[in-house]
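> example.struct
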């Protein structure tokens, strides 16, 4: 993860992180430092929530737990898998190169044999010589056929392995832009989708609306019912969002309890209706704990809805929608605020 803190701010976070690290069982190494640095900086709310939950249960963060936190909440997704895929492709490329060289060498030998036979046949030859030349051609042709069959088998195997790696690469690419908890796009994936939709909206002049949605009093839900049930609330909202959008619309989780909804080819009124449906459906939902059947009190959300203005950047559109979300919060929550 890239940080934009100045020297003084970074030094302050270091000062705050060291006491936390010294109380845990994990070694004071770069992984441990990264975990606590992001925690004290307040820039990784999901990581902080997970740490708080562990500490509240009296758990000391050992090396394994700390590394799991790092892998889940900090590490760039897919880097280890991409490295493995690269090594596999290097191996396959080497195998194919070896097969090609072998085929080239064997073909060269066969060409030499054919040339020798042609030269011998231009001369007078008795039955014994002809039989010898025929046997040579048969033997060399049979040998070449065996080499070709072996090469075809090796090529088929390499093709299957390459197709398998292609599918694995697609999986890694999907994981890199997918929020693992909710299954919707993560911030990186949503930003990429937004950039593409803005480009198309500019070119075709089509309407495009962006809704920013945030669960109301989510911290209180976590504090009262625990983070496991809080995760269930997040998954519930993600499911409600997916159920209410068209196939070409885009849902993303910005982090924490904040989500974004990109509505393609939709004017402001249509976007308002969809967003209001989402708010209403979530409010009617009843989320229960599996262990004791306890139902969470009513879950609501606030939303800000903005329409793309010709020429504005993605950041400007996001800022306007976020400002409208703030208005919804200030006005009492559990509502959708639109422009104008």
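> example.seq
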């Amino acid at each position: 993860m890239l940080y934009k803190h100045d020297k003084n701010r970074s030094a302050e976070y270091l000062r705050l992180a060291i006491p936390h690290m010294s109380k845990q069982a994990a070694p004071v190494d770069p992984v441990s430092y990264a975990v606590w640095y992001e925690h004290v900086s307040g820039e990784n709310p999901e990581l902080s929530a997970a740490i708080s939950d562990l500490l509240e249960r009296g758990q000391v963060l050992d090396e394994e737990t700390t590394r799991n936190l790092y892998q889940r909440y900090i590490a760039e997704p897919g880097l280890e898998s991409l490295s493995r895929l690269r090594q596999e492709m290097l191996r396959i490329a080497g195998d194919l190169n070896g097969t090609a060289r072998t085929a080239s060498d064997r073909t060269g030998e066969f060409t030499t044999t054919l040339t020798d036979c042609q030269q011998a046949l231009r001369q007078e030859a008795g039955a014994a010589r002809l039989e010898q030349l025929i046997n040579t051609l048969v033997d060399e042709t049979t040998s070449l056929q065996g080499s070709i069959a072996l090469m075809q088998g090796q090529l088929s195997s390499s093709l299957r392995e390459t197709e398998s790696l292609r599918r694995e690469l697609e999986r890694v690419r999907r994981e890199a832009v997918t929020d693992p908890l909710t299954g919707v796009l993560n911030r990186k994936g949503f930003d990429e989708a937004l950039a593409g939709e803005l480009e198309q909206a500019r070119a075709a002049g089509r309407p495009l609306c962006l809704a920013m949605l945030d669960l109301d009093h989510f911290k209180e839900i976590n504090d009262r019912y625990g983070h496991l049930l809080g995760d269930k609330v997040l998954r519930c909202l993600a499911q409600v969002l997916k159920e209410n959008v068209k196939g070409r619309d885009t849902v993303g989780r910005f982090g924490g309890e904040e989500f974004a909804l990109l509505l393609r080819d939709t004017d402001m009124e249509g976007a308002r209706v969809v967003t209001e449906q989402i708010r209403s459906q979530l409010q009617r939902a009843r989320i229960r704990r599996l262990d004791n059947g306890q139902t969470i009190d009513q879950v609501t959300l606030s939303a800000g809805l903005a329409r793309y203005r010709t020429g504005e950047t993605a950041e400007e559109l996001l800022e306007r929608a976020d400002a409208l979300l703030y208005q919804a919060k200030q006005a009492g929550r559990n509502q959708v605020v639109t422009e104008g």
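> remarks
The beta strands are 208-215, 250-255, 258-264, 301-307, 336-338.
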